[in-house]
């Protein structure tokens, strides 16, 4: 196992990888409860959504570990699942099977782009400054997710966002999570992020945040499997409905753009923490990562779990020592087990993972020093990405703003020759994406 995953070569060991895998799983475990709750609003059977969510995440995360050998975990992506639940299903006439077919088609399309080399080529065409900016933007975004989950920052009609209620139990648990994680990190204790989560879970018991499990074992429901090829009450397959409905095909393109660049940003963020990011900002061995991620998107539609994508929370496990695919295998196996014990796993509140996500955000901020801020061609587009990702609450939208800004600034400063052809393609694609989104 050590030779297969290259543990010694990467300065890791079995214990370190297992701990990192558990950290990643706990940081992602909220999806087990959140994804089914969203999909059930579209008519997906709740029990089947739990099965699809857990097994889809487990299988594809194990595939990522085995075939890509990097500490990246996959699960149903937040944002896209909401689109499936509240937009796609409605456009498809209330047929969630057709909505899943859109996801399936999007995954197949993006896999084709990977296999022909276009996805990697576009990534390689991105200026180094923008690659660093994506990491910084992702760091702020991750920290924002953590603090929002804990109620430390909340929505506000007057100011858009504001400081939360310090007397709120969620706030207290989130604060405990941050303090514990920072203290463990300062003391250089191995597994600081995981220990921070555990302390916060325990602190949440008397506060009522860590609830007692509703049960122990849950059964499996495979009724959503093969969703794109299931028929509605009129006898029409979901995938047939998509192919004959132009607006659904437009949605497939829009989601493909989102998935395309979300994964790129996530891979760079995790690579930074997992020490497989090259000096020029490129990710080592990116092709197998992109292939598995693309297959995962199609698999999510097929299983009825919404689009399965690489999770940015994977950075928490990488920051906790994960260096190989063994981290992912451990995370994936825990998701498979969770399919049977979902009630127990659900006791880990999203507030308890706040400290891990905030610490990862801090660690990723170091990339800001690599950006040449005095050069407007490098600095302004980088700023648009860094500000755009968290402020739009969308990785792809933030990247799109930066790409378009880079082309505009290059033209205005007479540096148009510095823009590689595929950057023009990406910027144009984002412009179309914004217009039809």
The radius of gyration over CA amounts to: 21 Å
What is the rounded distance between the termini? 46 Å
- Beta-strand portion reads under 5%
Number of helices: 20
Overall mean confidence score, pLDDT: 89
Arrangement of strands in the largest sheet: 1-4
How many domain units?
A: 1
Helical coverage, percent range = 55-70%
Q: Uncertain segments of ≥5 residues (pLDDT<50)?
A: none
Work out the number of β strands.
4
Please explain how this structure is put together.
The chain has helices at 2-5, 14-28, 31-40, 46-68, 80-91, 96-115, 118-124, 128-149, 169-186, 192-207, 238-243, 246-274, 286-303, 314-319, 325-338, 342-345, 354-364, 376-392, 395-412, 421-436; strands at residues 74-76, 153-156, 160-163, 308-310. It has 437 residues and is mainly alpha-helical. It has one domain. The strands form two sheets. It has a two-stranded antiparallel ribbon. Strand 2 and strand 3 (160-163) form a beta hairpin. Helix 9 crosses helix 17. It is globular. The N and C termini lie far apart (46 Å). The model has no long low-confidence stretch (mean pLDDT 89).
């Amino acid at each position: 196992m050590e030779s297969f995953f290259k543990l010694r070569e990467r300065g890791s060991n079995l214990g370190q990888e297992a701990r990192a895998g558990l950290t990643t799983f706990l940081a992602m475990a909220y999806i087990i409860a959140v994804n089914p709750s969203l999909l059930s609003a579209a008519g997906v059977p709740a029990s089947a959504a739990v099965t699809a969510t857990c097994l889809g995440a487990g299988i594809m995360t194990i595939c990522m570990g085995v075939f890509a050998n990097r500490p990246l975990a996959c699960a149903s992506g937040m944002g896209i699942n909401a689109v499936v639940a509240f937009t796609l299903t409605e456009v498809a006439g209330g047929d969630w099977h057709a909505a899943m077919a859109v996801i399936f088609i999007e995954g197949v399309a993006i896999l084709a782009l990977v296999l022909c080399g276009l996805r990697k080529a576009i990534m390689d065409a991105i200026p180094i400054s923008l690659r660093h900016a994506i990491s910084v933007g992702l760091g702020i975004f991750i920290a924002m997710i953590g603090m929002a989950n804990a109620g430390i920052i909340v929505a506000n009609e007057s100011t858009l966002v504001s400081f939360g209620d310090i007397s709120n139990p969620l706030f207290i648990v989130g604060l405990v999570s941050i303090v514990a994680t920072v203290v463990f990190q300062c003391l250089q204790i191995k597994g600081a992020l995981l220990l921070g989560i555990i302390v916060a879970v325990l602190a949440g018991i008397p506060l009522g945040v860590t609830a007692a499990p509703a049960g122990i074992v849950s059964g499996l429901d495979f009724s959503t499997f093969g969703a794109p090829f299931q028929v509605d009450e009129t006898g029409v397959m979901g995938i047939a409905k998509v192919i004959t409905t132009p607006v659904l095909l437009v949605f497939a393109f829009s989601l493909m753009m989102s998935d395309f660049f979300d994964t790129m940003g996530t891979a760079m963020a995790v690579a930074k923490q997992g020490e497989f990011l090259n000096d020029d900002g490129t990710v080592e061995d990116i092709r197998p990562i992109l292939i598995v991620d693309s297959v995962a998107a199609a698999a999510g539609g097929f299983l009825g779990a919404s689009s399965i994508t690489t999770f940015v929370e994977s950075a928490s496990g990488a920051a906790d020592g994960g260096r190989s695919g063994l981290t992912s295998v451990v995370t994936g196996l825990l998701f498979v087990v969770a399919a049977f014990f979902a009630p127990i796993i659900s006791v880990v509140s999203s507030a308890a993972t706040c400290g891990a996500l905030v610490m990862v955000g801090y660690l990723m901020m170091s990339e800001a020093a690599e950006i040449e801020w005095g050069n407007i061609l490098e600095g302004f587009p980088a700023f648009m990405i860094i500000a755009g990702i968290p402020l739009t609450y969308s990785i792809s939208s933030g990247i799109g703003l930066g790409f378009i800004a880079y082309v505009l600034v290059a033209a205005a400063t007479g540096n148009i020759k510095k823009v590689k052809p595929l950057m023009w393609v990406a910027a144009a694609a984002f412009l179309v994406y914004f217009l039809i989104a």
